[in-house]
Amino acid sequence: MRSPSKAQKIKNKKSKTKMASLTSTTAAAVAGPARRRSLTVRASATSVKLSGRPLKVAVVGGGPAGGAAAETLAKGGVETILIERKLDNCKPCGGAIPLCMVDEFSLPLDLIDRRVTKMKMISPSNVAVDIGRTLGPDEYIGMVRREVLDDYLRSRAKAAGAEVVNGLFLKFDAPQERNGPYRIHYNHYDGVKGERGERRTIEVDAVVGADGANSRVAKEMGAGDYEYAIAFQERVRIPEEKMEYYRERAEMYVGDDVSPDFYGWVFPKCDHVAVGTGTVTHKADIKKFQAATRLRARDKIEGGKIIRVEAHPIPEHPRPKRVSDRVTLVGDAAGYVTKCSGEGIYFAAKSGRMCAEAIVEGSANGTRLIDESDLRKYLEKFDKLYWPTYKVLDVLQKVFYRSNAAREAFVEMCADEYVQKMTFDSYLYKRVVPGNPLDDIRLAVNTIGSLVRASALTREMKKITL
Predict the structure, then answer these.
(1) Distance, CA of 460 to CA of 451 (rounded, Å)
(2) Which label site among 55, 56, 373, 435 has the fewest CB atoms less than 10 Å from its CB?
(3) Across the strands, what pairs with 183?
(4) Measured between alpha carbons, how far apart are the two ends of the chain, in Å?
């Protein structure tokens, strides 16, 4: 048999390299959560080139996810329409944002009501631990009002060229042929009298669902259900001398009385405090837990007047499906809220921007039609960056929120400066910070000791009660 020529060897090598690359790409596409079928990944150069018009995308929902997505799309040459029903919406949200978000999203400092540098973690037995000793002079947790932040991001999207519509998304009709348009049905309210608005239909090339935990877009695309928490919050205007206490301070309460699986909070705003709690397992008792949170904080909010009451579902984990053809989900609609902390603002804005960047790149700045593979690139990048954070916080919630004894141990552990530094570095800069091995061993020993002491204390308290 004649040995292959040099040219044939080079050809075979290229063929193997190409096959390895294809195998790697396919493996990446099906790896991780919500990726259960293989995909044919195509570059934008092979997709349909649009003639005489740019790619058109509907962003449904005008919160941080929708606002960030619409702005990025419009800047990237994509014709963008953002549909939001409640342009003055005040979501019941603690309103905490990490320091990195201020710079990353170029947020003006006057958008931030309070710069929290001190936090109190308060145990079931009312043992209070001060947190924040490891913060640098320029480090803080920003407190914002959602109605202010959301309006700012929508306004910036509009300035970038997005069309912002006061409307209620109803449903979409999927394309009847390959590369065909999605027909979006919605009620239009701009300049229209009456509660029902004016029924309208538009055609778009892709849909980004940023419409929250009760996402209609998710329902239309068959994204599946997920477990959710109920967040209940009261905005309380307290006397000025009491407000001074909360000028740079936030409080978190843990215990079966305030929530069997979450925590209660008192977060400072511009001229009032937000007092709230949440639960997944005992939703019917949410008002009882809220009353317990107010009771725990009674001395510090005494004389306050409730100026607003809010309630809203919060997702507990990502939906089973987040992409289908040219429809995708971001923010709460996708389920991007962390356990243990319940944080979602940064991840909403980040997912909206990353999704839009993938669309802009895949469409070659709005000149070509995108497909599902372009949207899945956003999922791959998002999961690679943040999945470790979600898993770590999921484990923490399961370990430390399961009983009052575990919560006592958690609060005791929070007094450790190493724990505080690791926690704040991870929160402020959105990365899972690798620790020092020796400190990690010491922390593990101390954690076990805290759990043992807390369990022993609980047993003794039960004996006294009996």
Answers:
(1) 14
(2) 435
(3) 173, 203
(4) 91
Q: Which residues have a Cβ under 8 Å from the Cβ of 167 and sit 6 or more positions away?
A: 83, 84, 85, 186, 187, 188, 189, 190, 197, 200
Per the listing, tokens 């006592």 go with: 408
Q: What single-letter amino acid sits at 404?
A: N
Which residue carries 């239009």 as its tokens?
188
Residues 6+ apart with CB under 8 A from 345: 64, 93, 95, 96, 97, 101, 144, 146, 149
- Residue-level length of the chain: 466
Question: Any idea what the Cα angle at residue 108 is, between residues 103 and 109, rounded to 5°?
Answer: 90
Cα-based distances in Å from 369 to 56, 179, 180:
9, 8, 10
Calpha distance 154→359 (Å, rounded)? 19
pLDDT digits (tens, 9 = 90+) for 211-270: 999 999 999 999 998 888 899 999 999 999 999 999 999 999 999 999 999 999 999 999
Q: What is the DSSP letter of 49?
A: B
Q: How far apart are CA 233 and CA 346, in angstroms?
A: 20
Q: For residue 81, count other CB atoms closer than 10 A to its CB.
A: 21
Residues 6 or more apart whose CB falls under 8 angstroms from that of 153 comprise 64, 67, 68, 71, 105, 349
Rg, Å, the chain Cα set = 25
